Structures are given as C-alpha cells and as structure tokens.
Amino acid sequence: MPEPRKNRVFSGVQPTGKLHIGNYLGAISQWAENQDDFENLFCVVDLHAITIPAAISPKAFHAKTLEVTALYLACGIDPAKSTIFLQSHVPEHSELAWLLNCVTPLGWLYRMTQFKAKAGTNQMVGTGLLDYPVLMAADILLYDAHYVPVGEDQKQHIEFTRDLAQRCNAMFNTRFIIPEAQIRSSGARIMGLDDPNAKMSKSIGEQKRGHSIGLLDAPSAIKKAIMSATTDGGNEARFGHAGVGVRNLLELYAVLSKRPHDEIEAEFHGHGYGKLKKSLVELVVETLRPIQERHVDLMKNQDHIRAMLDTGARRARTIAAVTVTRVRDAMGFVRSNI
Ligand code: AQP
Fold first, then answer.
1. Which is catalytic among the residues 118, 155, 224, 275?
2. Distance CA 230, CA 243 (A)
3. In whole angstroms, how far apart are CA 142 and each of 13, 99, 175, 206?
4. Are 20 and 89 part of one and the same domain?
5. pLDDT tens track for 78-114
6. Which one of 3, 178, 246, 258 is most buried, counting C-beta atoms within 10 A?
7. Exactly one of 6, 59, 155, 202 is catalytic; which is it?
8. What is the pTM assigned to this prediction?
9. Is 194 inside a domain boundary?
C-alpha cells in the first residue's frame, strides 16, 4: 500500500542582517528537528530581502544569500529530506503575489504591526514593504502548505495569510489549504541582550555589538555579548519571578540545554547572575561550534550549493506551476498553448 502523503511545511528566512540564535531557535532548528514528519519546503526568501533596498548592497546581498543557504545545511536541513531553494528562482511566487494583491484590501496591509514598526514616519518607504505580507501569503499558499514553522513575530502575517486564503476561496473557489502557524512553546521570541524589551533582530544585530548572538559569531564575541547582557541588581533566577533580562537568559539556557525548569532554577537561583551567564556562554559556544565548522566547509564549495539550489528550484516549480494554473483557471484567465 502506498504511504499516505505527509502534511506539507513551508518556511523561510530573509538573507539580510546577521542571523542570530533567535532565528535558529524560533525557526531553523524547528525545521531541522521535524524534517521526517513532513514534506518540507525551505526557501531563502530573497525577494523579501529587497523590501528595504537601501539596507543591503547588491554585492552583500548576493554573498548573504549563499551564506544563509549554507547555514540552512549547516543547521541540519537535509536536501534529501527537504526541498531547499531560492524564492527568486521560482517565478510563480511573484505571479501569485500579483493575483493575491488584487484581492487584498489595502486596509489589511496598513494594519500590519511589522509594517508600522519598519516604515515609521518615512514617506519614501517602498511599496514592497507594505506588500510584504501578500508575498509571504503567496509563498505559503503556492505550496498548499499545512504548517508554517516561525517565530512569534510572524503570527500576524500567518493570520493574514489565512484570512486572504479564505477570501480567495470564497471569491474564486481557489481551493487554497488554510495554513497553520507552528510556534514553539518556548524560544519563539528571544529578546535582545542589550534591551530585553525588544525582540532580538538581524538588522540591529548587524549594527550594534552586544545586541544579538550571531550564528557565526566567534566564541569571544559570544562571551562578550552574554556577559554584558542587561539584567537587574538582584539574584532572582526563577522563571516565574525573574526580570525580563534574566528570564531571556534562562529561556535561552532551557531551550538549548533541554533541561527542566526546576533543575535550572536549583542550579542558578540565589547565586548572582555571573554563574548563569558563564554556563550559558559555554552552552551557546558548544551548540554553535559544529554548525560553524560545517558552515566553513560548505562555503568552500559554492558550486555544490548552487547545484543543490537548482535541484530544489526544479522540485519547487513542479508544485508551484500546478497551483498557479489552478488559480488562473479559477479566476478566469485564458490558457496559453505555448
Ligand atoms: N528574536 C526572535 N526569536 C525567535 N524567532 C525569531 N525570528 C526572528 N527573530 C526572532 C524568526 O526567524 C525567522 C526568520 O526571520 P525573517 O528573516 O523573516 O526576518 P525577521 O523576522 O524580520 O527577523 P529579524 O531578525 O527580526 O530581522 P529584521 O531585523 O530584519 O527585522 C522567522 O520565522 C522569525 O519569526
């Protein structure tokens, strides 16, 4: 008997800024851990990366795209189990985004908190930044993905995708699967080490030392960032009572060590924060060491990475082309014979 088809998962990271431990815990490590349970598509979302064009030069963008692809592999995404590709290699992403644009109420886009935070009062902000959630919806709906493993900050965009899919299905019978966000119960929102009230961010991490733990940071930089992390003057290291800065460190320790909270509290509560910080430095360095070693090796053979991306794009396009044809037919476009 043929095995029943596995549920499909889609997710991606933008090749911008400095990838950090939050991206790893909130997204990439989750993808790697669950690869056997699903049919997986993991995309480096390079079209999203140009929504703030001034943020990255073409040369840096090109290099970052290959660096992030190699990081997927170094973090354990296996091309034999998962389709890995670049968003721009599958033109159906842009086509579906246009079709979806035409059924997206503008008001839905103006409500997005990430747009408001990134655009601020800048009148010259690009239209792509406002339209980001539509492209993200296209990414997901193109593959009829059942699940989207992401960090907590993406929750609103997944809700948007669900609403848009329902609207299209009702208007045109597009038969989109309504996707669900997969958000970890802990590690889904790692906060900045310098400011534990703000989410750890790729762009801030690139500009400001001590904000983030970069996946490719040297042990000395990791040590410096963690040892100087903002905490408070006390010695409260219990999950339910600690201040925001210490809670962030405890959470990082818990997710990386996979140890139960009571054991961690017994070890660190009442000792001052130096002990917790030192143990966290060791744990982070040891977690990232094999990833960094694999990354160095992978970057030595970029032809291999490009060949894998070609295979991934070919596989992704076979699914994407079927969906776009289905949507075009549902909307009434005339089919082409060429
Ligand atoms: N701090 C975080 N904790 C847990 N998960 C996080 N993610 C991002 N920050 C955290 C998750 O990482 C995935 C990739 O993110 P992205 O490339 O879509 O960019 P982003 O969410 O905009 O990431 P940053 O770090 O915040 O970048 P900038 O500074 O450019 O805005 C997503 O699944 C995200 O949820």
1. 118
2. 10
3. 17, 11, 11, 32
4. yes
5. 999 999 999 999 999 999 999 999 999 999 999 999 9
6. 246
7. 202
8. 0.96
9. no
